[in-house]
Design goal:
Blueprint lengths: L5 H5 L7 H15 L8 H17 L2 H19 L7 H9 L17 H6 L7 E8 H6 L1 E12 L5 E12 L8 E4 L14 E8 L4 E4 L2 E7 L2 H6 L1 E6 L5 E6 L8 E4 L9 E6 L8 H12 L3
Parallel strand pairs: 1-5, 7-11
Antiparallel strand pairs: 2-3, 4-5, 6-7, 8-9, 10-11
């Protein structure tokens, strides 16, 4: 059976950060943990699947290696050698527009003038550069490593490790993308693709990005959500506040604080339930009573 896509298993987008992936993993792992699902073989199988998915894409390095393996697997399936008919499939899979046509010409049905103007081009590579808030605020020169495909002497594509350096301006915005021309996958009959370098600013456990808005989780007991009250919150600036919680607040509700996010941006506080590794005897008894009366 083919391995399932780890992004789909964890329910995250392909450009998710380390923190977002870890958060999704913890949620799924709690849901399918064997201790919570005794004698449930399907839950145990799902738990192992979630663990394997997390191990595949837990870090930026893991994700880069996984994506590279997928590309190479795809090429092996279509014929990775540049001899005979396999070349058409490789160009179609890896190089998109500019690959060979079925007629054998790398320029398909284009006229001679178009052939002179347009050369085939290798695929672009998406790379994430993960920075701490201090690194993003101060800027500087940073290195990053990724894998790119190059044709070797035998005419097959070969994965090589490449390290580049880039200058990041102080106060760079999360999600800023820079095109580095000619640093992507090579094309044996044309020019190399580009690297699309995206800046991802990490704020540690409990904080993540929703688009360009920084979100911070606020663990809040169920009783406080339903009855109202106050919870202590430590903002990204390390300032401590007592946040008022309105009665009948729901998990997932958010409050926005202007200027409390990164670089003067807004911060959204999202109410979540706390993670309890183990409930006390008193807590279990209280929950049983709530269950009996429909809460």
């Amino acid at each position: 059976m083919a391995q399932q896509d780890p992004y789909s298993v964890l329910g995250v987008v392909r450009n998710a950060s380390d923190v977002e992936i870890k958060r999704a993993f913890r949620k799924k792992a709690r849901q399918f943990h064997p201790d919570r699902n005794p004698d449930d073989a399907s839950a145990e199988s799902k738990f192992k699947e979630v663990q394997a998915a997390y191990e595949s894409i837990a870090t930026a390095k893991d994700r880069s290696e996984y994506e590279q393996q997928q590309r190479m697997s795809s090429m092996r399936g279509g014929g990775a050698s540049f001899g005979g008919g396999g070349m058409d499939d490789v160009f179609g899979q890896m190089f998109g527009a500019g690959g060979r046509s079925r007629g054998g010409s790398p320029f398909g049905g284009m006229g001679q003038s178009q052939q002179r103007r347009q050369r085939p081009k290798g695929s672009d590579i998406g790379v994430s550069l993960e920075l701490s808030t201090e690194e993003a605020e101060n800027g500087g020169l940073f290195s990053f490593t990724f894998k790119r495909l190059k044709p070797n002497a035998s005419g097959t594509m070969e994965a090589t490790t490449t390290t580049l350096r880039t200058t990041v301006k102080a106060g760079v915005k999360h999600g800023t993308t820079t095109r580095m021309k000619g640093q992507g996958h090579d094309h044996p009959e044309g020019e190399a693709g580009d690297v699309m370098l995206t800046i991802r600013i990490q704020f540690g456990e409990g904080r993540f990005w929703d688009g360009d808005v920084l979100v911070q989780e606020v663990p809040t007991p169920f009783s406080t959500l339903m009855l109202g009250g106050k919870v202590k919150v430590v903002l990204p600036s390390q300032k401590k506040i007592m946040l008022s919680v309105a009665p009948e607040t729901l998990v997932g509700d958010r409050l926005r604080i202007a200027g409390a996010g990164y670089d003067g941006g807004d911060l959204e506080l999202e109410f979540v339930l706390p993670d309890y590794d183990e409930l006390s005897k008193e807590q279990k008894e209280a929950l049983k009573k709530l269950k009996d009366i429909g809460l």
